[in-house]
Amino acid sequence: MKALAIDSASGCMTVSAKNDDITTSLSLDIGPKQSQELLPAIDFVLKKVDLKPEELDYMVLCKGPGTFTGLRLAFAALKSIELAFNKPVYGVSTLECYASPFENFEGLVISTVDAKKDQFFAGIYENKKTILEPEDTTIEKVISVIDKTKKILCVGPDAKLFAEELKQNSPSLDVIYFDAQINTCINLFNIAEKMIEEKKEPLKDFEGPEYLRKSEAEIALENK
């Protein structure tokens, strides 16, 4: 299939395009500069696989949780292509995306992103089932809901930090982590094509990012 994928949920943005068996990806660890580089990155990967936007079969993105700006940028870019060329956009949970390569791990997979302020975005998975839906949570909450007799694999960009805090709070836990840089867009392609095969609906016009937390601006406005 011909597709375009974006993971801009963290400071390291990855954009990939695939033209059947040919895939090109570009990862940029640029933090807030994503707004300057996203559109050139899309243009770059599409040209590398000899594709035009109107030739795409589908598009897919990490729909959250993640950085407010990064998520909004990806939605805006792909929704624009959807509007111009009537191409479907599929949304995948960021945490599901990070956990998906480890679905056969014998134990619990905790997919996590540092949400700052002593909080984490986390989801817990086991044997292709969701144990804890993605939420804005604490180490203490996670420890309270897991089976402490099982081996734990922490994944995602902040897996090391999360694993260290788990061990600090509960030293008896059997915890390992995987935080190496991987091409998350490959995960997005795989999940999206499974969704298409299962005839699941793409994102609707009114659907946007799943932040799991209000922005600082929203909180400030409510407190006025």
Please characterize this protein's 3D structure.
- The chain is of the alpha/beta class and 224 residues long.
- It folds into two domains: 2-94 and 182-219, ATPase, nucleotide binding domain (Nucleotidyltransferase, domain 5); 96-178, Nucleotidyltransferase, domain 5, CATH 3.30.420.
- Helix content is 35%, strand content 30%.
- It has seven helices and ten strands.
- The protein has helices at residues 34-48, 68-85, 94-99, 139-145, 159-169, 184-197, 216-222, and strands at 2-7, 12-19, 22-29, 58-64, 89-93, 108-116, 119-126, 129-137, 152-155, 175-178.
- The strands form two sheets. A five-stranded mixed beta sheet has the order 3-2-1-4-5, sandwiched between helices. A five-stranded mixed beta sheet has the order 8-7-6-9-10.
- A hairpin with a 2-residue loop joins strand 6 (108-116) and strand 7.
- Helix 1 (34-48) packs across helix 2.
- It is globular, with a radius of gyration of 18 Å.
- It starts with a strand and ends with a helix.
- The relative contact order is 0.17.
- The model has no long low-confidence stretch (mean pLDDT 93).
Radius of gyration: 18 Å
Q: Which percent range fits the helix content?
A: 25-40%
Q: Quickly give the structural class.
A: alpha/beta
And the CATH topology of the largest domain? Answer: Nucleotidyltransferase, domain 5
The number of strands is 10
